[in-house]
Amino acid sequence: MQPYTITLIRGDGIGPEIAESVIEVFEAAETPIRWEEAHAGLACLERYGTPIPEATLESIRRNRVALKGPTTTPIGGGHRSINVAIRKAFELFANVRPARSIPGVQTRYNDIDLILVRENIEDTYAGVEYWQTPDVAESLRLISRPGSSAVIRYAFDLARRLGRRKVTCVHKANIQKISDGLFLECFRAIAAEYPDIESDDILVDNACMQLVMRPERFDVLVLPNLFGDIVSDLCAGLIGGLGVAPGGNIGNGYAVFEAVHGSAPDIAGKGVANPTAFLLSAVQMLHHLGLHGDAERIENALRYTLVSGIKTRDLGGNANTREFTRAVVSNLPPRSQSQAQNAPVQEPYRTPMLAPRSTDAEGWQTVGVDLFFHALQPPTDLPPQIGAARLHALSNRGVALESHAVGDRYLLNWFRARYVSETPLSEAEVNAIVETLAPRLHWTTMQRLYRTREGVNLFSPIQTD
């Protein structure tokens, strides 16, 4: 069998140490893998002026599969997350994080077997943020039909391929009725195409409680990006923490596997890092490649090592990285004992992406605008009507301001004026609204309001007292 060429990024902090552990185990297991080393992280930022050199992206582009060590992301400033940048560069829309109990790792549970599939590119991780006023920062939460459909379809395909019984959609559509409502709408439509798999949905807050109280009710979970990031760490806590939590990022034709944990610079270079999560991520990569026999042998060796009591300090043992790696190597079973077989070379995963649609084709009609503006006090001279559009509401933090109650409220210096028409507005009429208000207001953002031909509003209502 010809070896697979895999891009290896060692990363920052403990990354080089745990990467060396994986290389040693793979070599001892005689896996058909050839590593092509590439670089990303703080050293690249200092040397090349970017944390991800073009040569690294080209290596992933060429090999289509990468194993990536942890990289450091500054908090509150500095360069953007390397993980997020790679996911966006290759449209790795599905983040797959198995959570499976490991014998020998003491937790409150001993029978966890979940797979969390998280949308990986959109949501607040699109990184579209602005200062609106000196007191108000805005982060846009972008949920799209094509993005939601891609990750949800992958979750059902994965469940079917692995013989899983159920896929659960986790959301907050009771509050985020339009954005999470769209994610849930996509889920229900796609679930109908998989009648052999049970499907249900649950609010994210309830899901967190149920995962702690009754984790057995879940099998495969699919979530929008931000909720998935949070809930995946909760699931990692069920099986012993981030030190044993693997992860993979899947797109159309590309995949990058990485441990969930960070670069842990405080213990870098001390030889005490736990390579378990990174090794399990590499095992996940082998399954992705169809090398199921090799994956099974390495995971069995890892589990036997932990059951025998050889653990790193974070798991309650006293083994260092080197001693732990040697123990895994010594516990590798012969190939003849593997129950799984390596599969023929598999085609990369692909799912059809929905084509963008025109608002005209969907019958959307512009019926108004929301104009956001900076002011220290609510204005009193807004025109009650501009053309066919009337002033529907003046709001602050999403709540309509009634003139008699303004004095009792703490108000931000960011307001919204909503003008709505009963009939569709022409472009000239929309422009007239903005041109009338612009000289009066220090406006920051304008949002067009749509309604369908059937009279359904495609915007959320303004709350009232």
Description:
The protein has 465 residues and is α/β, with parallel strands linked by helices. It has 3 domains: 196 residues, Isopropylmalate Dehydrogenase, CATH 3.40.718.10; 133 residues, 3-Layer(aba) Sandwich (Isopropylmalate Dehydrogenase); 89 residues, Alpha-Beta Plaits. Helix content is 32%, strand content 23%. The chain is built from 12 helices and 18 strands. It has a 10-stranded mixed β-sheet, with helices on both faces. Strands 13, 14, 15, 16, 17 and 18 form a 6-stranded antiparallel β-sheet that branches. A two-stranded antiparallel ribbon has the order 6-7. Strand 14 and strand 15 form a beta hairpin. The longest helix has 18 residues. It is elongated, with a radius of gyration of 26 Å. The mean pLDDT is 92.
User: For the CA atoms, what is the radius of gyration?
Assistant: 26 Å
Q: How many domains make up the coordinates?
A: 3
Find the CATH topology of the largest domain.
Isopropylmalate Dehydrogenase
Helix-strand pattern? EHEHHEHEEEEHEHEHEHEEHHHEEEEEHE
- Largest beta-sheet characterization: 10 strands, mixed
CATH architecture of the largest domain: 3-Layer(aba) Sandwich
The overall average pLDDT, rounded, is 92
Gross geometry: elongated
Low-confidence stretches: none
Q: Write the CATH homologous superfamily of the largest domain.
A: Isopropylmalate Dehydrogenase
The main sheet orders its strands as 2-1-3-12-11-4-5-10-8-9
Residues in β-strands, percent? 15-25%
Q: What is the share of helical residues?
A: 25-40%
Distance between the termini: 69 Å
